Amino acid sequence: MNDVGLPRSAVLRDARPVLRERGQREVFCGLTSIVWLHRKMQDAFFLVVGSRTCAHLIQSAAGVMIFAEPRFGTAILTDRDLAGLADVNAELDRIALSLLARRPDIRTLFLVGSCPSEVIKLDLAKAAERLNATLLPRVRVINYSGSGIETTFTQGEDLALKAMVPLLPATDARQLLVLGCLPDIVEDQFRRIFDALGIGPVAFLPARHAQELPGVGINTLLLAAQPFNGEALRALAARGAMPVAAPYPFGALGSTAWFEAAALACGVERATIDRALQPLQARAMTALAHYRQTLAGRRIFFMPDSQLEVPLARFVSAELGMDLTEVGTPFLDRQMVGADLDLLPATATLSEGQHLEQQLARVRALRPDLTVCGLGLANPLEAEGLSTKWSIELVFSPVHGFDQAGDLAELFARPLNRKARLAA
Hints:
Elements: E1 18-22, H1 34-40, E2 44-50, H2 52-62, E3 72-76, H3 79-82, H4 88-102, E4 108-113, H5 115-119, H6 124-135, E5 140-145, H7 155-164, E6 175-179, H8 184-197, E7 202-205, E8 220-224, H9 230-238, E9 242-243, H10 251-265, H11 270-295, E10 299-302, H12 309-318, E11 323-329, H13 334-341, E12 349-354, H14 356-366, E13 370-373, H15 375-383, E14 388-390, H16 391-396, H17 405-423
Parallel strand pairs: 1-12, 2-3, 2-4, 4-5, 6-7, 6-8, 8-9, 10-11, 10-13, 11-12, 13-14
């Protein structure tokens, strides 16, 4: 083990019991991921083919004023479309071409499927193929599903990135590819750290411009930055990329382990790793010390929502001293979260999937100090005297890396501090 750090090789606990639940779920759909994807890819437009409900959801989640012109929109299916009285494909082509004529800055158009478009069996793959025949090379059209029928909301990003994988050029060059949508400020910080470690070239998927596609091949080392991109990771691995297993870069110790795993895979010497990472780790741990005073010993319950639950549970347990009552996650992808899973305390209950009523009964019985849950559950639980943290805020906020360690801890401390001030 490092002087202050996570084990370099943890004992696998594949035999850990998992409570698997199937029943009523409470979660946003995959369309929500457009909120951060459209901010990241500055030359892309996300056109949802869906209902007015889809349009209201995305606009509400993004907080966009009605007179703004963001890089996402909804082609609304009307009663005529659903009844087969209109040629849906012709209408979709007309809307897409009209949009691109008005927005010449758009170089990549994502056609995003929804529950309504999938129910009527609208083939968006054929639509993308048809539009590409007309628009390439000026505009590339890509399709993926953001339907919430069987997915959780972060899987929208996973499916969007997976749809991009076949378009990546082949390369035999040795490189590191970081997978997962990161805020620009975090990406810039990570590039500086990789430079200090002597790792390069480094590419990110998605890049800031959707047309800037990184190459992939047998000499590509693949480092996941988000635990919910399992389908995209496996698609890249099928093209020869080699995944690097590591805890996710949440907090001081998680960030150290993540960069260390990349450095060791790239053959960086131990002295260089320590020289580059130790000052960053020390600074992050200083930022965390203030919040540890508030959070150590507090009991926390993670309800399944974003697939960030296992890495975040590792963070609050190992770095903030919180007591894990239950760690629920929509899907337990051991390939993606195995390194963090192995670092969870054996006393933590792990659950996969959701039976909402049964899980709420456990929350009420345990009455944890903090419950991490979706927006739809937060207010009812608050009304019962339980402090909550919106899980979606942990997805929308910059929380990765050393410099954001204190900000991440504050997101967990804020509800408890607010409750203490109100009580006073």
